[in-house]
Amino acid sequence: MSWKYIEKIEDVIPSWLYRGTLPIKDVNTLAELGKGNIEEIIRIHSRMLSDTLSEIEKRKNYYEFIKGKSGKDIERLSQEYDNPTFSSSFIKYYMREDTIGKDYEPAKREDARKRGSTNFNKCGWCEFSDGPRRYDCVLWGDCKLLSGTGLFGEKKLGRKIRFYYDCLLKELDRKDFEKIEEAYKRILDELEKKRIKEKGIIEELKKLAEGLEHRPYLPQLRSPELFKKEAEVIVFVKGGEKTLIREEFIEANVVRVYDEGCVEFVAKKKWHTGNFYEGRGGSCGIESPQILPKSEWEYFKRNPDYLRLWISLLKEPEESFVQHLSHIPKKKHSKNF
Fold first, then answer.
1. What is the pLDDT of residue 156?
2. Does the chain have fewer CB atoms within 10 Å around its N or its C terminus?
3. Is the per-residue pLDDT at 333 higher than 50?
4. Is 4 contained in some domain?
5. Same domain, 56 and 196
6. Is the domain of 79 the same as that of 161?
7. Pairing state of beta strands 102-106 and 91-95?
8. pLDDT category of residue 11 using cuts at 50, 70 and 90
9. Taking residues 52-59, what's their average pLDDT?
């Protein structure tokens, strides 16, 4: 089968799904991930397509607003909104943990205004400003109408917007607005190409998934549905001061999955000296490879080649876990394993 939209695997698998160099080099290797993993990757691309469609709609609306205008038109619009002047008691320096050094912020909550109240006058409460907020005021950031155009970014003291800045759009003439319109045409053209590519990748991935068997999910693609109440799991428990057993892996049953993605389990036998479920309880993140549905454990025992591929795609695996898991196809297991 020929692939029109899957030009390179890096276009298909987002960089946050793996560490270092992507071990999957072609579509054939991608197919080795199995039906379930590819369906989850399709869901990722479906969300990306949805975001692209939303961005296209937003940019079209901004373009329609900008089209045909000049600074004088923005000046007339601005008269419908507040245009406050700020005293030194209102604008103060604040030390913030998330920034280096000091920065300006509104000093009092009671002085704050509503979002959209200073449109085309002061950036802080303009509905088209975007960035970190305090008291519903955008402290610094970007003008949504100019963001991505590559225009006029340095006109304001070499910085982007600040909440006390006057609207830049009022200073622009018709030629400036024509440049903005041309930039929007380029942006919309690029977004349309992105939409076509994303849709094409989804369709080609659906074709690729047809007829493939289900294989163990990559931990970073797991759904909470994989760990339903009382589901059988295998958990890696090697090491730790409170560990009582010599085994690296234990059998357990799921108790619950919390909203934040934590799987709570109870082992079939006591494995630690703590009080959690009298030494049988434990918990593990849903994206941790150290907890496995028992069916996936059994699959790994029968399919060492897939196990190696699965391990190569783990993001930050613990070395001892990888060493012990890599040997499970070679071990003789009791009837319980």
1. 43
2. N
3. no
4. no
5. yes
6. yes
7. antiparallel
8. confident
9. 98
Q: What is the pLDDT confidence band of residue 163, given thresholds at 50, 70 and 90?
A: confident
- 231 and 326 together in one domain: yes
- CA distances to 26, 59, 71, 209 from 1, in Å: 13, 36, 54, 13
Q: Are 295 and 271 within one domain?
A: yes
- What's this model's pTM, rounded to 2 decimal places? 0.83
User: 31 in a domain, yes or no?
Assistant: yes
Same structural domain for residues 155 and 246?
no
Provide the pLDDT for residue 108. Answer: 61
Same domain, 142 and 290: no
Domains contained in the chain, number? 3
Share of the chain above pLDDT 70, in %: 86
280-297 pLDDT per residue, tens: 999 999 999 999 999 999
Query: For tokens 């163990």, what's the residue?
Result: 216
Q: What is the CATH number of the domain that holds 237?
A: 2.30.30
pLDDT tens readout for residues 212-228: 999 999 999 999 999 99
Q: Model confidence at 78, in pLDDT bands (50, 70, 90)? A: very high
In a domain, residue 144? The reply is yes
What is the domain range of residue 200?
9-65+187-209
1 occurs within a structural domain:
no
Contact 179, 170 (CB under 8 A): no
CA distance 160 to 143: 8
